[in-house]
Amino acid sequence: MEGEPAAKDEQPGPGDRAGFETLFRSYAPRLRGYFLRRGESSAHAEELIQEVMLTVWSKAKLYDATRAALSTWVFTIARNKHIDARRRMTRPEPDPDDPCFSGGSEPPAPDESARAGERSERLRAALGQLGEEQRTTLEQLYFEGRTMQEIAHRDGVALGTVKSRARRGVLALRAVLVEHAGEDGDEL
Length: 188
Fold this sequence. Notes:
Elements: H1 17-37, H2 42-58, H3 70-90, H4 110-128, H5 132-143, H6 148-155, H7 159-184
Helix pairs in contact: 1-2, 2-3, 4-7, 5-7, 6-7
């Protein structure tokens, strides 16, 4: 290819500094143009060039001239470095104040813990009032984490049957809970 180093200079070994310098001088301007055309800032393009050439230097013994031209190998590394950089830039930083990172370090207040226990008891009592098919379907869905497809396969019934049981079960459960909430004057 025109403008590429001579064949003897194209394959510097891991310790061939002179060959690497020639390679660097040849490819750095082309890599810079490649990164700039892809929207990188000048400073970031320089960083990426350094990463690419460091990879070329450290993995020179992996280059196989029978599989691809040197330029193909170098620009494949460049492309991958560019993709990795873009992924790093678009990945959101975790928010340390996000409640999911609290790790549950603060125990719930005693009154909240008591209310949660009462709600749990009401739910169990309401589930006990459902028909067997509806109750077991809801238990498998919500407590065992099974999908409707898994329940249908396990119970040997059609998927539509499982969906109907779940829907009817949820409606019946809601009715029982609303009825009990009305009697007790409590929230659900």
